[in-house]
Amino acid sequence: xxxxxxxxxxxxxxxxxxxxxxxxxxxxxxxxxxxxxxxxxxxxxxxxxxxxxxxxxxxxxxxxxxxxxxxxxxxxxxxxxxxxxxxxxxxxxxxxxxxxxxxxxxxxxxxxxxxxxxxxxxxxxxxxxxxxxxxxxxxxxxxxxxxxxxxxxxxxxxxxxxxxxxxxxxxxxxxxxxxxxxxxxxxxxxxxxxxxxxxxxxxxxxxxxxxxxxxxxxxxxxxxxxxxxxxxxxxxxxxxxxxxxxxxxxxxxxxxxxxxxxxxxxxxxxxxxxxxxxxxxxxxxxxxxxxxxxxxxxxxxxxxxxxxxxxxxxxx
Length: 316
Known about the structure:
One of its GO terms (biological process) is isopentenyl diphosphate biosynthetic process, methylerythritol 4-phosphate pathway. Its EC number is 1.17.7.4. The protein has about 325 residues and is an alpha/beta fold. The protein has three domains: about 5-15 and about 200-300, 4-hydroxy-3-methylbut-2-enyl diphosphate reductase, catalytic domain (Cobalt-precorrin-4 Transmethylase, domain 1); about 20-100, Rossmann fold, CATH 3.40.50.11270; about 100-185, Cobalt-precorrin-4 Transmethylase, domain 1 (3-Layer(aba) Sandwich). It has helices at about 20-35, 50-55, 85-90, 100-115, 130-135, 150-155, 175-185, 200-215, 230-240, 255-260, 275-285, 310-315; strands spanning about 5-10, 40, 60, 75, 95-100, 120-125, 145, 165-170, 220-225, 245-250, 265-270, 290-300. The strands form three sheets. A five-stranded parallel β-sheet has the order 10-9-11-1-12, sandwiched between helices. It has a four-stranded parallel β-sheet with strand order 3-2-4-5. Strands 7-6-8 form a three-stranded parallel β-sheet, with helices on both faces. Strand 6, helix 5 and strand 7 (about 145) form a beta-alpha-beta unit. Helix 4 runs parallel beside helix 5 (about 130-135) and helix 8 packs parallel to helix 9.
């Protein structure tokens, strides 16, 4: 039986960013250097396949430092941690490696510099997300206030409206952040912003790529985990850019084929913590049902690479 034709628009860039790639390498190199088990505080990145693969290699994932023994190495996830965490690890004389994405660390440094200048900080982010918790935990309680929406800006109670700065979670939607920043600047004209955009290059590039395919595709699959902020934002961006059928799937097995319906074109992208082999799974599943023609839509080229910490490059 002849398969129906399908044009597959493949967004580029997609998938792993430099920070995720670095974090995974850190865990793998730590296991190679110190042997298993190596403990990881929180999922190293938000992707079940990646976490399961590292667990099979000897990583043990925990949510609290108190769950780690003193005599085994511990790695802090790419999302960053409050200052109290490495301080406690040092007090316990633990071997620890910080896998925080350098672009998240940049936001931490910004927050500290603003605080040193006497400014209270407003963070644009999602409550409960590890990156938000980590950034707010760089300073004492009350020095960083969280807003999630433009409506929150009207309610936030600040110490001095003339002495404020704002920082941003790196994985947000660029479009949503613009509205919140505008609300902050309207209410607090003296507020200082970052010298350079906090939302990371990978988040921006993946959102621009999905916008480029949204108007072409009858449906879009975003490969990523439900607890991945940047993956969820890609679904939202696709929907706002004109694709009525935009779904987040972790694996090809999650595709709702009945819900897909009669389509002639499909777009695929992947969150920054999703490996390419999961994209390949989705492509193979489509090829099993359609006569697929692939068209890659590239909106940017990425050549960023972050070095792993020196401790992992030194001999034991």
